[in-house]
Amino acid sequence: MPKTTVERIPDEALVVRGGRNSPEDIQRAIRTHPSGITGISIECAVELSIAELALAIPHGQVGVTTVGKVRSEGGDVIRTSGRSLNHATLTGLTPEKASLLLTPRIPNPSRT
Question: Fewer CB within a 10 Å sphere, N or C end of the chain?
Answer without folding.
Answer: N
